């Protein structure tokens, strides 16, 4: 196996404050191989941008190391200058130069190259991002999505070894965001780029990344692909952060099964016997069943094409979500029969 393209080992980062060192990232390790798109996904303030700045060489390490192609570029004692790392960055406020044309923005990082090579590369990049005919335009003449494509072309033009994208779509409309994330993924794959995206937006992460690290307070709590994070969350935090769902209380019996208000299920998580647990119930884990003995009160009903999302109150008072595929005539206040679709659900210590 070749060295990972990018490797972080036990990285600790922090800011010096009047009160002392404020550690914001701790014991963070990850490995990303060539051609892969990785993502750090986590709430605002968890340390994502700080990690990216450390990878580009702008943030000193308190502990650990960062390596590109197996060669250490950052340790607490030594740091390779940012311009020697060949790391490209694209930020959320795409920050195109307003007084430069699209052509000149994309060519900005190629100023020292011969004019012919530069023109050729600019043309190649604009065609890659689907903007071949717009090289003469100025940033204010472009839509937000087009500006993002230019910013991407500009970041890719000098052929960086690694591309870092910091919340690149957060200034765009929600609708456009997910579509553009998918398009940018295709562009990066065609360019055979290796990239790290950071975002707080799960849809963006899922649309773009091959592998995702969920961050909580400066640490990666789970690294995996979108499917695994959704279906096999490692902690209650990941379960709550990824996708819709509710953590319902249960109790694990001697025989290994977990007793919930609606019957017994099996746990896919590490929980011990006779312990109080919380079980992750996604809206698609419940089915309507008129003959089921388990009854719940419909307290909220909203159309979420193609079906309806129900909020249901169980006799104990706890509420769960259920995705119903079609209009079944139930109204708020009605009693609905429900049953579980699956016999195994992720469980966590309470
Ligand atoms: P994210 O990108 O995930 O929103 P950041 O990496 O920007 O998080 O910030 C992580 C933590 O570090 C936050 O608590 C933030 O307030 C703090 N922080 C970020 N930049 C600085 C700075 N220059 N000086 C002091 N604290 C900072
Ligand atoms: Mg940030």
Automatic annotation (TrEMBL):
GO biological process, one term: quaternary ammonium group transport
A GO CC annotation given for this chain: ATP-binding cassette (ABC) transporter complex
Entry keyword set: ATP-binding, Cell membrane, Ion transport, Iron, Iron transport, Membrane, Nucleotide-binding, Transport
InterPro entries, per the entry: AAA+_ATPase, ABC_SmlMolc_Importer, ABC_transporter-like_ATP-bd, ABC_transporter-like_CS, ABC_transpr_FbpC, Mo/tungstate-bd_C_term_dom, P-loop_NTPase, Transp-assoc_OB_typ2
Gene Ontology MF, one: ATP binding
SMART domains documented for this protein: AAA
Superkingdom field: Bacteria
Domain ABC transporter, residue spans: 6-242
Chloroplast listed as a keyword: no
Record-linked Pfam families: ABC_tran, TOBE_2
Protein name according to UniProt: Iron(III) transport system ATP-binding protein
Biological classification of the source: Bacteria, Pseudomonadati, Pseudomonadota, Betaproteobacteria, Burkholderiales
